[in-house]
Q: What sequence folds into this?
């Protein structure tokens, strides 16, 4: 089976008390989610009603708050059969929107450069700077802790074939092309400060 055809159903997550559907065994759930993702799978399927109406909380805690948003796809479902009337539907829909808002807040907090990786900026760059790749590495390293940085290794590998962030001459071509109107030149300075200061890796001359 192709990996993209396989989804992680969240109807029966591990619990510590069989009589309490909300007694989530978080260490085990996190281990299961991580193992699934380590194998290259990305799709999760939740629903408002699973686990006595607590499933979305568990998925938020074990998945959304622990992994970058671009690492997974998450679907959830509105419980049409549970709606008594339009007011009820609105209440449940608003609860789901509140969760989405929280998720968005987490994503924004963990994504200092809101680049969508469309690559429109790179075509006219006289220095062939790998702008979206560098921004992705910068966002990624902002979410990690510890002294070793695989992002720094990736940065140096990419800069062997492309211009470095510090090679930017400030012509502004990229910013004219960016549909998000990002201050790319300023961000590149942040990238250079993060990845080039004191680097011991070889880079293109
Ligand atoms: S401003 Fe810098 S990154 Fe943008 S196109 Fe010019 S050289 Fe390239
Ligand atoms: S054009 Fe803007 S949003 Fe698109 S890749 Fe470049 S910086 Fe990112």
A:
């Amino acid at each position: 089976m192709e990996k993209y055809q396989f989804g992680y159903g969240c109807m029966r997550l591990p619990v510590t008390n069989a009589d309490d559907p909300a007694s989530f065994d978080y260490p085990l759930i996190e281990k299961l989610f991580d193992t699934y993702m380590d194998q290259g799978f990305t799709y999760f399927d939740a629903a408002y009603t699973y686990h006595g109406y607590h499933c979305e909380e568990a998925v938020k805690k074990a998945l959304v708050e622990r992994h970058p948003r671009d690492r997974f796809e998450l679907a959830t479902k509105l419980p049409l059969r549970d709606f008594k009337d339009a007011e009820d539907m609105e209440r449940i829909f608003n609860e789901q929107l509140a969760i989405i808002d929280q998720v968005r807040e987490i994503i924004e907090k963990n994504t200092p450069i809101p680049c969508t990786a469309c690559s429109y900026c790179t075509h006219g760059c006289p220095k062939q700077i790998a702008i979206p790749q560098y921004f992705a590495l910068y966002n990624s390293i902002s979410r990690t802790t510890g002294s070793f940085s695989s992002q720094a290794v990736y940065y140096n590998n990419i800069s062997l074939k492309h211009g470095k962030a510090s090679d930017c001459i400030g012509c502004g071509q990229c910013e004219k092309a960016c549909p998000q109107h990002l201050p790319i030149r300023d961000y590149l300075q942040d990238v250079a400060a993060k990845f080039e200061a004191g680097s011991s890796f070889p880079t293109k001359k």
In short: The first helix runs from residue 26 to 38.
